[in-house]
UniProtKB/TrEMBL annotation:
<dbReference type="GO" id="GO:0046872">
    <property type="term" value="F:metal ion binding"/>
</dbReference>
<feature type="domain" description="VOC">
    <location>
        <begin position="152"/>
        <end position="315"/>
    </location>
</feature>
<keyword id="KW-0223">Dioxygenase</keyword>
<dbReference type="InterPro" id="IPR041735">
    <property type="entry name" value="4OHPhenylPyrv_dOase_C"/>
</dbReference>
<keyword id="KW-0408">Iron</keyword>
<dbReference type="InterPro" id="IPR037523">
    <property type="entry name" value="VOC_core"/>
</dbReference>
<dbReference type="Pfam" id="PF00903">
    <property type="entry name" value="Glyoxalase"/>
</dbReference>
<keyword id="KW-0963">Cytoplasm</keyword>
<dbReference type="InterPro" id="IPR041736">
    <property type="entry name" value="4OHPhenylPyrv_dOase_N"/>
</dbReference>
<keyword id="KW-0479">Metal-binding</keyword>
<comment type="pathway">
    <text>Amino-acid degradation; L-phenylalanine degradation; acetoacetate and fumarate from L-phenylalanine: step 3/6.</text>
</comment>
<dbReference type="GO" id="GO:0006572">
    <property type="term" value="P:L-tyrosine catabolic process"/>
</dbReference>
<dbReference type="InterPro" id="IPR004360">
    <property type="entry name" value="Glyas_Fos-R_dOase_dom"/>
</dbReference>
<comment type="similarity">
    <text>Belongs to the 4HPPD family.</text>
</comment>
<dbReference type="InterPro" id="IPR005956">
    <property type="entry name" value="4OHPhenylPyrv_dOase"/>
</dbReference>
<dbReference type="GO" id="GO:0005737">
    <property type="term" value="C:cytoplasm"/>
</dbReference>
<keyword id="KW-0670">Pyruvate</keyword>
């Protein structure tokens, strides 16, 4: 078989990344990616069981544009899914049509291939220069060090086994109407996806259809071109309901991806071009979570009806979307990940994004007498994208809640999403109405003494009436030298004690941009350092109830 290289990336990028993988001893795990992405596009002189015929491959171009002959078709992947080697698939689904192995359906409790690759690669990086100094000694500075322009959070994608009912539950519980869809009714034979929106917050819920259905189509119909049914099945089996992608809007997804890979990011999905020159690409963040880059080529998606979200999605009518739902949630404030080892994870993300350290906490800052954590918050230049990461503290009296998460999630993953509210009192009243009827339950409220001492801790920022309302709703309050934070946490939102949601409101830190418009400084009021102890106690008490039932 003769192969002619078309060069998806420049030789320098290939050689540098090739050298990095050799040095990190994960070449065999990465090789399929290099073969597909760095030698593609290619011409095959003879048929092969591993690659499509030359007629199915586009002409020599660094990206594969969306099929313009059928607007329902997503961008063509580099190779069709049934021909791609399992470069980032879990060991338990090498046979992609089954979740069981040949040993009498015995489950293999192993890390996913990509998790091992990330762990191996990041552990080889030098530890020099990274040392937690704790909250008191940390000095906040913004060096404006982004490697590429990151504008904002774009969306968060959950992978699940039933997108229809999961999306409806979140819509009901958070007051977020379903505004767009891509499913069988829109011509998507690969996955069902439903978009919820409230203000600038976008939640996307996706589930796979049977692979046999999508294989009946002559070309890809997936609205998310990076979606893989087999990977989704394996992901859900390993993690339950969980976040697959944290998407950020960037100036150019191609530049962001190429720069990231050049600087050590582990690639997941190379850039593809959708309709209207929308670009999408992915690199691995931690565990099986990807950082997704989305760019619009200077077009405004809010003003262009064809760019309401992503090409391939259709708007949902007001009658079926509950468009009147609005609990006051406005945007994603931060997305928190749990990792087994913080130093290597932080270094990995900082290296390819250029994000700076916005805050940090150690076990001495936030722990209880029984458990603790270490945490670092990374931020982009504008401090509109905040990515905290936690690690467990081992050897404590009790197993850390982070360690519990890592066990039940089968590795690193996204722990919680902090949703910014314009009026947390209104948001909480609406959410609590639905707690027992399909909504979300909240962690137990702190003791009465917490609110008796609140005035002394936060000053006159809140009136006596507002403090009373905080007590009634179970809201925690904290303050730093810049502003005030109001926050509350749900119980885990799925079957496993893993992912949960935080509702917050930040008060203060108002600035004006060049046009005179007011905006709030990112991270105003901090991250609830003064409430970590109360939160830990609450979570520990919740976990104790689970342990009591198990030992009874």
């Amino acid at each position: 078989m003769k192969v002619e290289c078309g060069g998806c990336f420049s030789n320098s990028i290939f050689l540098k990344t090739f050298q990095q993988t050799i040095e990190s001893r994960v070449f065999l795990l990465h090789f399929p990616y290099f073969f597909i992405c760095c030698l593609y596009p290619m011409k095959l002189s003879s048929s092969s069981p591993f690659f499509p015929s030359s007629s199915s491959i586009h002409s020599h171009t660094p990206f594969l544009p969306r099929n313009t002959q059928n607007s329902n078709h997503a961008a063509t992947p580099l190779l069709s899914s049934n021909h791609i080697p399992p470069r980032f698939t879990s060991p338990q689904h090498k046979n992609t049509n089954t979740l069981t192995n040949s040993n009498n359906n015995t489950k293999t409790n192993t890390k996913t291939t990509i998790s091992m690759a990330i762990e191996t690669e990041t552990q080889t990086q030098t530890q020099t220069g990274f040392k937690l100094v704790g909250f008191k000694n940390f000095v906040r500075a913004n060096p404006k060090s982004d490697r590429f322009n990151v504008k904002r959070f774009h969306h968060v994608e959950f992978w699940c086994t039933d997108a229809t009912n999961t999306a409806r539950r979140f819509s009901h519980g958070l007051g977020m109407p379903i505004v767009a869809k891509s499913d069988l009714s829109t011509g998507n034979l690969t996955h069902a996806s439903y978009l919820l929106r409230s203000g600038d917050l976008n939640f996307l819920f996706s589930a796979a259809y049977s692979p046999s259905i999508s294989l009946s189509s002559p070309s890809s119909t997936a609205a998310i071109p990076t979606f893989s049914a087999s990977t989704c099945f394996s992901f859900s089996a390993s993690h339950g309901l969980a976040v697959r992608a944290v998407a950020v809007e960037v100036e150019d997804a191609e530049v962001a991806f190429t720069t990231s890979v050049n600087l050590g990011a582990i690639p997941s999905s190379p850039p593809v071009i959708l309709e209207n020159n929308v670009k999408l690409a992915e690199v691995h963040l931690y565990g099986d979570v990807v950082l997704r880059y989305v760019s619009y080529n200077d077009l405004n998606p809010n003003q262009n009806p064809n760019l309401f979200f992503l090409p391939g999605f259709e708007r949902v009518s007001d009658e079926s979307s509950n468009s009147s739902l609005d609990f006051g949630i406005r945007r994603l404030d931060h997305a928190v990940g749990n990792v087994p080892e913080l130093s290597s994870a932080v270094k990995y993300v900082k290296q390819f994004t250029g994000f700076h350290e916005f805050a940090e906490f150690t076990a001495e800052d936030v722990g209880t007498s029984e458990s603790g954590l270490n945490s670092v918050v990374l931020a982009n230049n504008e401090e509109t994208v905040l990515l905290p990461m936690n690690e467990p503290v081992y050897g404590t009296k009790r197993k850390s809640q982070i360690e519990t998460y890592l066990e039940h999630n089968e590795g690193a993953g996204l722990q919680h999403l902090a949703l910014m509210s314009a009026d947390i009192f209104r948001t909480l009243r609406e959410m609590r109405k639905r707690s027992g009827v399909g909504g979300f339950e909240f962690m137990p409220s702190p003791p009465v003494t917490y609110y008796r001492n609140l005035k002394n801790r936060v000053g006159d920022v809140l009136s006596d009436e507002q403090i009373k309302e905080c007590e009634e709703l179970g809201i925690l309050v904290d303050r730093d030298d810049q502003g005030t934070l109001l926050q509350i946490f749900t119980k885990p939102i799925g079957d496993r004690p893993t992912i949960f949601i935080e509702i917050i409101q930040r008060v203060g830190c108002m600035l004006k941009d060049e046009e005179g418009k007011e905006y709030q400084k990112g991270g105003c009021g901090g991250f609830g350092k003064g409430n970590f102890s109360e939160l830990f106690k609450s979570i520990e008490e919740y976990e104790k109830t689970l342990e009591t039932r198990r030992t009874a």
